[in-house]
UniProtKB/TrEMBL annotation:
Record organism: Pseudomonas eucalypticola
PROSITE patterns recorded: ARGINASE_2 (PS51409)
InterPro entries assigned: Ureohydrolase (IPR006035), Ureohydrolase_dom_sf (IPR023696)
Keywords for this protein: Hydrolase, Manganese, Metal-binding
Family: Belongs to the arginase family.
A GO molecular-function descriptor: manganese ion binding
Pfam families: Arginase
Protein name: Arginase family protein
Keyword Hydrolase attached: yes
GO CC terms: cytosol
Amino acid sequence: MIVSRPRQVNGGPRGLGGEVGVEVSANWRIQTNFLCGGRTIISRKSITAGIAELPVENDVSKPSNTLRLVFPQWQGGGRPPYHFGAQLLEWLAPPASGPVEHVPVPKPADVAIEVENGIVARAQLLKQQDDAAKLIQKHSPDSIVVIGGDCLVDLAPFAYLSERYGDDFAILWVDAHPDIMTPKQWSYAHAMVLGNLMGFGDEDFSSRVKRPVKPSHVFYAGLEDPSEYEAGFLAEHDLKSASGAALADTSQPVLDWIKSIGVKHIAVHFDLDVLDLNTFKAQLFANPNVPEGTYDGIARGKMTLAQVTRLLKDVNHHADIVGLGFAEHLPWDAIGLKTMFEELPLIGEP
């Protein structure tokens, strides 16, 4: 997750003309074709091939008891586009091999948010976490894939996995930011989620974690430039991390950590802002609707999709990935086209 002021999205399509193919990795390709008035075509087949490289749902050698939880929560970060970002991620993902549940989240146009006792949309967020927990308990899965949504979507799923696997469980937090704030530093709960999972922070949220994860069982991959408060928290609790540069060509720092703690089960939180803006645009920092310099001073990710894919596959060879959460997808071009469609005659809403 990212700590900055939320912005309203009002943009339209950019860069019309011709056909462009973008190779993201060997198995990922986004093809754009602006024919017949302008259309962006995303090749489901090629993108699905890239997602299918990741663990948890794609091992056909064993029966699946993996729950796919679609959780378009946006109030935790105060950014309505997270709702649509989760919907698009659900479309991009390969078909689920196990049960699928959708956490009910009001559309941004249907609900207002305000600060409640230091946290924006406190009551809504707690209800959504409780709804997610009920859906998880309904299936009692061995593993969970979370399609989000802001970073808070992983609170209930990872809390369940921690309770299920106990001391044989750890969290790999693939994120440019540590997510250990409290209401004293920030009012958006997506910046607090990992602190809550370790038993720290606001009691309404941390109390929903029945078995907090030990700090020694947490590792940050891709962490960049923590703030003074964050750096102090990391040092106080001896939290381990590796920057994007340290993981550019090797997964060894993470593998060494897994060996040192001796756990078998790992949940992975994948915040898309851990990715380098130059290679991946569907994230906050590519927002075309804010003035230049809006996000100055905020840590930015430096990893690539290929590096994250390699890292997670390596981890899955040394332990069992039982949780995989995708968060903070902001597909600005698609959002712009969607907004344009809604305003046009014939195709738009009356």
